[in-house]
Amino acid sequence: MSEAAPGLPDSADFATPERARLAEAVRELIDAVMTSEGDDAALLLEVADGAEALAQRLGRRREGGAGYRPQSHGEYLPRSPVVGQASPLAPRIEWDNSDTALDGKPGIEAHGTFGAPYEGPPGHVHGGMIALAFDEVLGIANIAAGHPGMTARLTVHYRKPTPLFHELHFRAAVDRIEGRRIISRAELWDGDTLTAQADGLFVRPRPERALEIFGELPQD
């Protein structure tokens, strides 16, 4: 099972405006590395030296994990590779609650743009990145509906290639609850074009397992 996104506000003591600003700057550097062509070797090495020096100023590379123990969902959401405002890996998918997210059911709607680092087929988003984004938005929709869970199965139906550099729109909602099982669905749209759909099966962990994974949760 994989962890599903919690959908709680970013932790105030980690996701500060300053850290979000830094993450955005690093995103721009990543994009430049992926798209810059024709630069001479000396310039590339100079930039690499500068990047390594900046990394050293923030701290040495960790070999044993993130180096923190989350005490609530909100403490690791800022690090999300999809919605994390403090993660330079994230395309920064923004989301809001919606009363009619999908087929008239309440859930969430999310939007954002995938740039060059997320390319699979030329000019289009990598299918694995789409699956990751679906896992995240479905998890957030579950939490928004009051049914947190962990991903047990995720099925993605790729309908059309999803373009890079387009404003994309996600819709996600809980379909039904069966005991500890949460069945959720999501769609991905490029304007009026449906590019992908996802069906997710999530399982609410037992209290002792949730405590082991997430620590004390605010709602507990």
Beta content comes to 25-35%
Number of helices: 4
Distance between the termini: 22 Å
Top-tier CATH class: Alpha Beta
Oligomer category: single chain
Low-confidence parts lasting 5 or more residues at pLDDT below 50? 1-10
The fold-level CATH name is Thiol Ester Dehydrase, Chain A
CATH architecture: Roll
Mean pLDDT across the residues is 85
Helix content: 25-40%
Question: What is the overall silhouette?
Answer: globular
Could you list some keywords that capture this structure?
disordered N terminus, alpha+beta, 220 residues, Thiol Ester Dehydrase, Chain A, globular, 29% helix, 6-stranded antiparallel sheet
What does this structure look like?
With 220 residues, the protein is of the alpha+beta class. The chain has one domain (1-220): Thiol Ester Dehydrase, Chain A (Roll). 29% of the residues lie in helices and 26% in strands. It is built from four helices and six strands, in the order H-H-E-E-H-E-E-E-E-H. The protein has a six-stranded antiparallel β-sheet, with helices on one face. The longest helix has 19 residues, at 17-35. The protein is globular, with a radius of gyration of 19 Å.
Put the structure in a nutshell.
Helix content is about 30%, strand content about 25%. The protein is α+β, with helices and mostly antiparallel strands. It has one domain: Thiol Ester Dehydrase, Chain A, CATH 3.10.129.
